[in-house]
Design brief:
The chain is elongated, with a radius of gyration of 20 Å. The chain contains six helices and ten strands; from the N terminus they run ββαβαβαβαββαβαββ. It is an alpha+beta fold.
Length: 219
């Protein structure tokens, strides 16, 4: 079964660079970003891990934990982290999962369930689909999924922007328009009648079309 938005994120217990953890327990009452890599010491992922390390304070402000995954062993992750700090200027302080038996990669549809073997001897090409990002809510439901090709570095500024939208729309009955950023107007969804919108937004809102109404971002 393929994972879909609003499915419960599969739980697992795994070894990480910060010890053994149970994924759902580790999330607790926070949000979480799980992002995966096909192999340690790969160039594109080296830049990504460093960038995420630099962005971690922004995720902390949003009550969001970061966790990485690679199909290599935890010992390799620790060596890789030194290269990341040296070349990218940031040391990853978030945990990195060692997925040598490919269990987590398969749970999250990053590799076919019938894929055999272990991480030993595998190349990035063998693990080409293990380049995914998941945003998971405190309710342990999957809120967003993205999978990137091997040669395209991920835009983690976009993940942060999407997280802002998801957190806002989970707390308020609104949607966000294209390229929306914090502080910009949001959309009143069609499920909210004009009568209810007037009560909800006494300061007023703009109607561009009956189905397209804009209002200031709720605080």
């Amino acid at each position: 079964m393929s994972l879909r938005i609003n499915d419960t994120a599969p739980n697992f217990t795994a070894q990480t660079t910060q010890g053994k953890l149970n994924f759902h327990d580790w999330i607790g009452d926070s949000w979480a970003i799980l992002f995966s890599h096909p192999k340690d010491f790969t160039p594109v992922c080296t830049t990504e891990l460093g960038y995420m390390a630099g962005l971690q304070p922004e995720f902390d402000k949003r009550n969001t934990k970061i966790i990485g995954l690679s199909v290599d062993a935890v010992g390799n992750h620790e060596k890789w982290a030194k290269d990341i700090e040296e070349t990218q200027g940031h040391f990853p302080k978030y945990p990195m999962i060692g997925d040598t038996d490919l269990n987590v990669a398969k749970l999250y549809d990053m590799l076919p369930a019938d894929e055999g073997g272990s991480a030993e001897g595998r190349t990035p090409a063998n693990n080409a689909t293990v380049r995914s990002v998941f945003i998971i809510g405190p309710d342990k439901k999957i809120k967003l999924m993205m999978t990137y090709p091997m040669t395209t570095g991920r835009n983690f500024d976009e993940i942060l922007r999407a997280l802002d939208s998801i957190q806002l729309t989970s707390s308020h009955q609104v949607a966000t328009p294209v390229n929306w950023r914090q502080g910009e107007d949001v959309i009143i969804p069609p499920s909210v009648s004009d009568e209810d919108a007037k009560k909800k937004y006494p300061q007023g809102y703009r109607t561009l079309k009956p189905y397209l109404r804009l209002v200031e971002q709720p605080k």
